[in-house]
Amino acid sequence: MTDERSQQRDQGLSSLALDPDLLARELAAQEDVDPLDAIEPDDSVDDSSLAVARACDQGLIWLTGDHNERVQGLRVFCEHRDPRAVPLLLPLLQRPCPVERMSAVYALGRNPSPPAVEPLLQLLQGDSNAYVRKAAAWSLGNYPDAPVLNPLIRALQTDVAAVRLWCPGSLAESVGSSQVKADPAAGQLLSSLRIDSEPVVRSNCIWGLGRLFHQLVEPRQQEIVEALVDALLHDSETSVRDEAMTALEQLENPVVIERLQTLINDGFVM
């Protein structure tokens, strides 16, 4: 990951800006890219409380309109939180249009609500559209109190790359402060780091492992350090090696820092 993307990650999953119109264009084009990567923040948006309240009021009206109005309303609740939107968002998860389903999923990631858990899990596990499943993988990371750990692990093991790339971050976020959940999440991230064919998935696994590190017992921490050093030395992709270096440095462990310095001094790391 670049430094910019790492900073975005560090702000948490819920900080992302989402635009259903842009997502719809990407979906229609069926391009093999990450729609979220193309979203630029709108610096013109007035974030004052009054402006947000007015936007949400209008968004609620749009959600009850025709397709174009619903997409406009979904844009609002991909950006803003308002519990009044949840009852209107839930039925949109069943819309035949994948753009509406996908956007509703992202909006329910921005507006987490217990009634959304089961339908989001169903979409992650069974929706025919990979962009909808990908949206579900992102949104479920915002439900740390729900039983999302095993479904996210299965998606990381078996789904297409577009879905897998969001699973590591969501796994790391979904465990909350639970050490019981942290260990199986870390185990799967370690496995995917070693075997996943996509560099961006491996990079995201590294980010997730760094996020979980301090919740884990010492033997698992040591396993993570060894896996990160191995990625730093042997991964074929520069981006993954850079992510491993960053993760190791951010552990702020004197022993690990000394080991990195030795590797640099001996010419194993440039």
Q: Count the domains.
A: 2
Secondary structure: number of strands: 0
- Helix content bin: 55-70%
Low-confidence stretches: 1-17, 29-46
Average pLDDT for all residues: 86
Helix-strand category? mainly alpha
**What is CATH's topology name of the largest domain?**
Leucine-rich Repeat Variant
How would the global form be characterised? elongated
Fourth CATH level, the homologous superfamily of the largest domain: Leucine-rich Repeat Variant
Order of helices and strands, N to C?
HHHHHHHHHHHHHHHH
What can you see in these coordinates?
The chain is 66% helix and 0% strand. It has 270 residues and is mainly α. The chain folds into 2 domains: 1-115, no CATH class; 144-270, Leucine-rich Repeat Variant. Helix 9 (149-158) packs parallel to helix 12.
Short note summarizing the structure:
Helix content is 66%, strand content 0%.
Secondary structure layout:
Layout: H1 3-10, H2 20-29, H3 49-62, H4 67-79, H5 86-89, H6 98-110, H7 117-126, H8 130-139, H9 149-158, H10 161-164, H11 167-174, H12 179-195, H13 199-212, H14 218-234, H15 238-250, H16 254-265
Based on the model shown, name its key terms.
270 residues; mainly alpha; Leucine-rich Repeat Variant; 2 domains; disordered N terminus
